[in-house]
Amino acid sequence: MINRAALILKYKQPAIDWINEIDPDEDADQITLESVNKERMVYLIPDRAAFDEDTVRMWIELNHEALFKNELEDWYSEESLWPEELNLGLFDTWFEVECHSVVIDTSDEPIVEEYFEEEDDGGAEVH
User: Which of 47, 68, 105, 121 is the most exposed place for a label (fewest CB within 10 A)?
Assistant: First the structure.
């Protein structure tokens, strides 16, 4: 076990409606709730933040804006497309929070943080 908990944000229909409405590509296929929630990002949070529902909620209240921005950036990096206020009420309307307090690292390899850098040709390179 490691000293982290796993937090997953499951999208709710209002978020899907926004994604489909704001998409600048009018010919794009409509995103569905099922397709979005098939593969979700996992956030590792301090295990003490996952002690119970109250501590998870407290952690969300303190970090909802950063989570919100991360999720929005995954869809549209152009911030002018984002909702004006990324408040807790909208967060609760758009996401269901799922938290798992037991995380077991089954790999012998060290955890390495990867990040993306824009290349001159417009592509992204993973580091």
Answer: 121
Domain membership of residue 26 as a residue range: 4-126
What are the pLDDT digits (tens) for 41-60? Answer: 999 999 999 999 999 999 99
31-to-8, 23, 39 alpha-carbon distances in Å? 19, 10, 13
Alpha-carbon gap, residue 126 to 11, rounded angstroms: 26
pLDDT at 32 over 60: yes
Question: Cβ neighbours of residue 9 under 8 Å, at least 6 residues apart?
Answer: 40, 41, 43, 67, 71, 95, 96, 97, 98
The predicted model scores a pTM of 0.82
55 contacts 49 by C-beta, under 8 angstroms: yes
